Structure formats: structure tokens, C-alpha cells
Amino acid sequence: MRFLILVFVYLYVFLFNTAVGKAQSIQKISGKVVNSTNELMMGTASVIIVQDSTIIKQQDFLDGSFQISDINQKEVLVKLTSAEFADRFLRVNYNGSENVDLGTIIVKENNNQLNEVVVTSQPSLLKYGANGNIDVTVKGTVLATSSSVDELLGRVPNVVVSEGQISVLGKGEAIIYLNGVLINYERFAAIPVSQIAKIEVISNPSSKYDAEGKAVINIVTKQSIESGIMGSASQHAAVSKFGGASTNTFLDFNYSKGKFSFIANYSLQLGRNRELLYTTRTRSNPDDYMKSELTTDWKRRFNNYSNFGFGLQYSFSADNYLSLAYSGNISDLGGVVESRNTLDNYSGRSFYATDVDRNDVLLNQFINLNYNLKTDQKGSTLFIGSQYSNYNQTIGDLIEENSLVDEETDQRYLKNNVGSRINIIAVQSDYMKTINEKTKIEIGAKFSHATIKSGTDFLIADDMNTDFELDDELSSDFEYNEEIAAAYLNFGGALSNKVNFSVGGRAEKTSYNLFTDANGIQKFEKGYSNFFPNLLLNFDFSEDWKGHFSYAARITRPRYQALNPYVIYQDPFTTIEGNPNLLPEKTHSFEFGTMYKKFDFKIGYTYKIDPIAAAALRGDTPNSYILRALNIEKGHTFFSSLSRSFNLKWWTSTNTISVNLTKSIDNFYEYAFSPVKPQIYLYSNNTFTIPKYFKLQLLAWYLGNRSYGLGSDNSRSTVTVGIERNFLKDALKLNFSANDIFHKFMVSGDYNVGQTQIYYHRTYTSNYFKLTATYNFGNSQKTTYKKSEIEQSENNRAR
């Protein structure tokens, strides 16, 4: 409380002292680009920091005119580029006016290249925003060698990817946006890494962003082509001693002529992958003694793991377009899952071996129809979008179960047949009204409807040659219908020349009905309403010193499959089951940060209500356990972070150190409480450039031990090195990398619940050698296709 009082006193004094302050930097640059015959040109205008050549703002223009705002620099370079004219550089200095009009700029044709300014330094990996956000450059860094977006995000500072969850340290699970529009996990997985320009980590999202998720990660792709053809083909080949070999093939194609633009992409992964889980469960009470040592080995085979999509857009003008897009992905997974369980209890020792012959097929399809309109010259925009999503999953696993008890062997066979279908329809409208350079209003509304149906048939037989009989206790049907209506309002403005703000709120009303006959018939209808306010204050103390304070309320709804109580078989004593009684998790987050030159410092606190966790709970029989998602009582997270980047002609480096303290509290599930200990996070990303020869890349991070009150997590780390060289005038790029060379990316920890001490240790196929070859082709360097999708958090829960 004392800290909050000091913060608000400080804010009050600062606001009072800066109310009459005047800006001492360039805020806006505008101009008109023509050729020698006074024809309006098309191209891109970029604002570059003079000291390190970092691009801080960029804008495309089709009618010759450009206007770039929120620059906040005393001296910059303006770079004009296009396939139509030679690059043009202009040096702009602050001369007492915030708004600089460059007037009419005459550019030369391509056969007369200008050479007044040559930018030779490497692009900075990281750019810090005054509002606490960070921009991470992908092109030209070790991040660009990633085989998937999942792997790429695991290399981004302060982002942790583990067990299918993407989190921002100190904040929690993040939702993913593509070019400013929310997407689902399957769409996210289908994004070609070769098309990604940068990653924006938004730790303090406004009410414009969906309330689902504690942070936002926005993936920004490269610009579309201006006119003509552009494409790339990339082939990855990876070899891992632990997991085996795999290949990834990526194809991207862009075509544009006149007002029409077309894009298409396809990727295919073949080969093998592996995941190994070692778990012990120990009940030390002599009257109820039991110790289970379970090893589960997923030996996956990618029969057809592919992503595909295409889109068509018609541009009425630069900011007025209609787009239609179709995309999808197929996940046809084979292989086996081998489980070995040694069980000791008061009656002796027994051994169980289970082999699952996997036959899992998932087909996801998405259709988007969207319209975008620029409504005035100040930049006001209207967006109307719709999306239909369809998920179809079939599982036909054959399970062979063997046991050795009291020197007697037993064998049986099981079939797990699952059919699941999810349909989601959503419509959305967003309007942003720009009042002036520093003031704007954002309003929007959204409605979505989701229907989930699944059926599970669990069959058992003593012999493969006999008829399988249905097990009613393990078989079930599930149906879930949900409607969410949402509306938001966000207002941004300036309190003075040195202080600007953003304040808003998002209201959401959720109603759903659920039916399941697992463990008896359950049928109920529920509804709830929530309001999520947010506040952001940005302070411009000086050109080199900036700060911010933020507050945001967020929600995390359970994933649909986490509500479905159908049984996922793991071994005779272990199943994974959903929980239809899960509640949404709600959070309140506060953050204060300051940025001095290239140092960025943050401290924050997050309070969680009904946090969603997971645990192995005892089943109906003495030795059985059910892995299930559940709500614990509450949680507290304190965090601090310090980052520093520097950029030389031959060396770029980004370094981060964070300290997090998490305390989880629950008095319902009989957790054993443990001391709370902080967790340290270290990150370093370095690129060394040997001109005309190659680049050397080194990435390393370390996430230390953590004790959070209800359990503890062990440390994990990774070290990745790579070498890269371009050929054929940069059209061909070869990269050889060694990922996680010490194989230290392993997730492990322990907790005590219901008188059982549980230890787990997961090993992934993270250590591998990979060779990547990428070839770029085409006759243009600029694009116009603006792929947009409706903001839809429901898709993120379809996992």
C-alpha cells in the first residue's frame, strides 16, 4: 500500500510540474513524392534513428503522400524506397516545430541510384516502447532460422513456451494476433517464419484487444508486393539423436496486379518427433503406502502435418479494401506411445506395460470475409469482419495392455474411438476516430457463437480375435454451446506535451449450456457478465528518459476440451479428463516502467482470481490418478525486469534479466504448502557479422528454479548457435544451426496434493542439428495485400 501511495504522489507531482511543458522533438513528418514529370509515386517511407540506423516508423503510400506521427526524436533520417524510383534519404532536424512538412520531394528513376547515405549497421533485435511493449526483429537474426512460429516465440526474450502454452514472464498466458487481428493456435502454427518481419510483445493491452489472455503477442508479416510476383521456397532438414530426423518444406507465393492481390502458402512436415515423461507418485503414509514410477514415451510419426491457405483482396484505394481468405491445416499423426509403470504398495510390486498405436487425424478450416475503410484524411478507419471456423478430429487408437502381478501375467486390448466437431461463427466491427494527432477514440463490438460436439467409445477385449465390448463408464457424449457478446470503448489523448494517456473498458456477456453423460448425466446452463477496465499513462521526461504506468483487468476462459470430461487413456492407472465445472480465471495487473536511453526497467504485480491449474488427483480405485484442469483459490505474482541492447556494425546484442516471485494459494484440494522462492531469468541474443562472408549467431537463455507455494519448478535453459551465408545476390540463404546443444530444455518439478507427492520430468526433441536453405524469387520488392481476420478468442480455446 505504501508503494502505491508513493507512486500516485509521484504521478501527481509529475503531472503538475509538466502540465505546461513543451515538446522538444519532432512529432510528425509529412511530404509528397513525385518524379521529374510531377507524377505521384508509390512507395514506402521509413523514419530511421541516426545513431544506430534503427527503423522506428514506417508507412506505405500509393498516392504520393505520406504522414508519419509519434516520432519523438530530435534528429532522424527519412528513407523513401520503391521499385519505381531510387532510394532517397533526407536528414531532418528539430527546428522548434513538432510537425515537419517536407513539401514536394522529387525522386530519380532507378537507373540513377543515389549514394549519399549508406546504412551498414545491423538491425537491432529489440526496440523498447515507452508504454512497456517491445518489438523483436526477426529478419536477419537467429530467430529467422526457426522451423515453426512456436519455436520462434520460444527464442523471444521474456516469452516462455511450454506444454502448448505461450506466456509472458510476469504476466501469464498470452493470446496471439496476426497483423493486429486475433488468431487461433492452428492459424498461428501455419504462419511461415519466412514471412515474419517482427514480433510485438504487448504486455499492457488496451480494451481494444480481446479480454482473453494476460498479454498480447502480435506477429507482423512482411509487406505485400506492389506489382508482380514474389515468392520463397525453404527447406529445413533436422537431425536429433533423441527424437530422430524430420523435414519441413515451406512455399509462399504472392501476386499482385492493379487493385487485385493474391497470396498462397503451403508447408509440410514429415519425419519423427519424441517426448519423454517420467513421473513418480508417492504416498508415504504406511497405512496407505504407494509408489508409482511411470515412464511415458511419445514416439510421434508425422504422416501428414501440413498447413495451407490462400487469399484474394481487392483494393479500392490504399486503405479501402475487401478481402477473402481460406486457410487450414491437417494433422495426421501416427507412431506409438509406450508406457511403463512399476507399482509398489503394501501388497507387493507389480509391473504394467502399455503400447498405444496412434491414429489421430485433425482437419481445421477457416474462412474470413473482411472490409476495411479509411473514413477521413486524419486516419480514421472502419473495419467489419466475419469468420467461420471448423474443427474435425477423429481418434482411432489401438491399445495393448500387459501386466505382471504376483508373477502372473495378464493381457487385454482396448480401442479408443473419438469423434469431435467444433463450429465457430463470429462477426465484429471496429471504428477508430482520429480527432487530432494525439487524440483518438476506438469503439467496437463483437458477437460469437460456438458449438462443440464429441462422442467417445471405449472398447475392451481380452483377445484381438474376439469381439470388443463397449465400456459404458469410459465412454461418453459431450455437447457445449456458447455465445459471447462484447463491446469496448478506448480513449487516448494528451494531458500535456510530456504526458499522454489511454483509458477504456471492455464489457462481455457470456452464456452457455453444457451436456455430458460421463460419470452420470450432467446438464446445466450458466451465464456471467464482466467488465474489464484499463489505464495507461506515458511520460516523456526527456528525449532519453521515458516512463509508463498501467493497469488492466483480463480473463482466461477454459479451453473447450478442458471442459469435456471424456477420457484420454495413458495407462491402466492414469487418465486425462476434462472438468465441466471449470471457472474462468480473472486477473488484475499493475505495471510501472521506465526507459533510459537503451535501458528498459519494469516492475509489476498481478493478482489472480480462480487461477486455472492442473494436477494429478486420486481416482476411484486406490492406485488410479486423473490428470485434470482445476481452479485454485488465488495467486500473486511480483516481477521486475531490466533489458539492454546495443548495436555495432559487426555485433548486435540483446540482454535481459528478470526476477519473478509467484505465490499460489488453495485450501480445497489439500495441497501441501511450501516456501515461496523467486525465479531468475537470463537472456542473451548475439549476432556477429563478418562482412562479405557470413554471420555467426548465439542465443542463450536460462530460467531458474521456482517455488510458488503449492509446488516447485526446476531450472531449464538452452544454448543455440548458427552460421549463415547468402549466395546468388542474396536470393539464396543457407543456415546451419545447432539448437539446445546441451539438451537442457526439460520441464520438471514437484508438488504435493491429497497426501501424494508427485514429481514430473519432461524431455523434448529440442536438441538437433538443422540445415536450412531458402530461395527468394520474384520481380518486385513491395506488397499490397493486407490480410485481415476477425478478432476471435474462441478459436484459441479449441485445443
Would you kindly provide a written description of the structure presented here, covering whatever features stand out?
The strands form five sheets. The protein has a 29-stranded antiparallel β-sheet that branches. Strands 8, 9, 10, 11, 12, 13, 14 and 15 form an eight-stranded mixed β-sheet that branches. Strands 3-2-5-6 form a four-stranded antiparallel β-sheet, with no helix packed on it. It has four helices and 48 strands. Residues 1-23, 111-121 and 781-792 have low confidence and may be disordered. The longest helix has 17 residues, at 2-18. With 799 residues, the protein is mainly β.
Key attributes of the depicted protein:
4 helices; disordered N terminus; mainly beta; 29-stranded antiparallel beta sheet; eight-stranded mixed beta sheet; 799 residues
